[in-house]
Amino acid sequence: MSKKSERPVAGQEQTWFAKGKSDSWQVLLSQVATRFDREYRGEAFALPEEVEAMPIFLESVAGTLQAKTVSPFWKIAKPQKNQRCLDIGCGVSFLIYPWREWEAYFYGQEISSSARDALNARGPQLNSKLFKGVEWAPAHQLNYEEDQFDLCLATGFSCYYPIDYWNIVMGEVKRVLKPGGHFVFDVLNPNAPLAEDWAILETYRAGEVFLETIEDWEKLIKAAGAKVVKKQSGDLFQMYKIQYN
Fold first, then answer.
1. How far apart are CA 136 and CA 236, in angstroms?
2. Which tens digit of pLDDT belongs to each residue from 138-174?
3. Mean pLDDT, the chain, whole residue set
4. Residue 7: what pLDDT?
5. What is the rounded CA–CA span in Å between residue 241 and residue 219?
6. Which CATH number fits domain 15-244: 3.40.50.720, 3.10.310.10, 3.20.20.70, 3.40.50.150?
7. 90, 119 in Cβ contact below 8 A?
8. 3-class SS at 112?
9. 3-state SS record for 71-87
10. Element (DSSP H or E) covering residue 55
C-alpha cells in the first residue's frame, strides 16, 4: 500500500512546493503546475504576436504538434499484466492509453490538480480494479513504499527543471522501484530541429525551458547508478529505458 500524503485543502495548494531544495525549485514547480492546470482546463495562453506567427505555434493550433511531443513509452516498456506501474506526471493518461488492455495496475502522480481531479473522477468508472488513484505531488516527492513498482514512467516534463532537480527525482524512483524494475523517461533533445522553437513557445506558457545536452543526461543516468537498456528518438524528445544497478 502507498503512504498517503496529506492533500492540501482549498487555499493551501502551495504547501508542498516548499519541500523543494531551493527557492528556484519552488518557482519552477508553481509555474509548471499553473501551465498544466490551464491546459487541462482548456484556457488559452496569452502569447506575443511574434510567437503566434511561428510555424510551431500554428502546428499547435492545428493539432499536429501534439503527436510530436508524445513519447510512446509502451514501445520500449509495455506494461505487463499485473505489474504495478507508477506514472509520474501522468496527466490524464489512464483515459487515453490502453491500460485496460495491458491489465497493469496504474498508480498516478501529478502536479496539476485539474488533471488529478479529472482522473480520480473518471478512472474508477473505467476500471476500478486497475486504477489505483492519483497522488497530487511533484516528481521529487514520491509517497510510496520502497520496492513497490515494476515500472515507473515520467514523460513530457523533464525539460521544465534543471538536471540537479532530476538527480533527486531519479533517487526517489530508484527507492520505489523493485530490483530489476525499469524507469522510462524522456528528455528534450536540444539538437532536434524543432527544439529551439518549441522551447520558445513553452517559455511563454510555463517559464524557463532547460536545454540540457544529451551527454549531460547520460552522465546523470550513470551517476544515478543506472544503465541504459534502450533508447528511442522522436521529433523533439529522446526516450530512455533504464535499470538501476
1. 27
2. 999 999 999 999 999 999 999 999 999 999 999 999 9
3. 90
4. 34
5. 15
6. 3.40.50.150
7. yes
8. coil
9. CCHHHCCCCCCCCEEEE
10. helix 55-62
Domain ranges in the chain are 15-244
- Provide the grid cell at 244: 538501476
| CA nearest neighbour of 222 among 206, 243, 199 | 243
Q: 468508472: which residue's cell?
A: 125
Distance CA 58, CA 176 (A): 41
136: enclosing H helix or E strand: strand 131-136
Strand bridging mode 84-88 / 105-110: parallel
The pLDDT score that the predictor gives to residue 207 is: 87
Q: How many residues does the chain have?
A: 245
Q: Three-class SS of residue 220?
A: helix
Look up residue 134 and give its three cell numbers.
Answer: 492519483
Question: pLDDT-based confidence at 22, cuts 50/70/90?
Answer: low
Between CA 172 and CA 42, with CA 128 as vertex, the angle to 5 degrees is: 70
Residue 140: Cβ within 10 Å count? 21
Pull the grid cell for residue 176: 520505489
User: How far from chain centre, in Å, is Cα 195?
Assistant: 18
CA separation for the pair 55, 217 (Å, rounded):
28
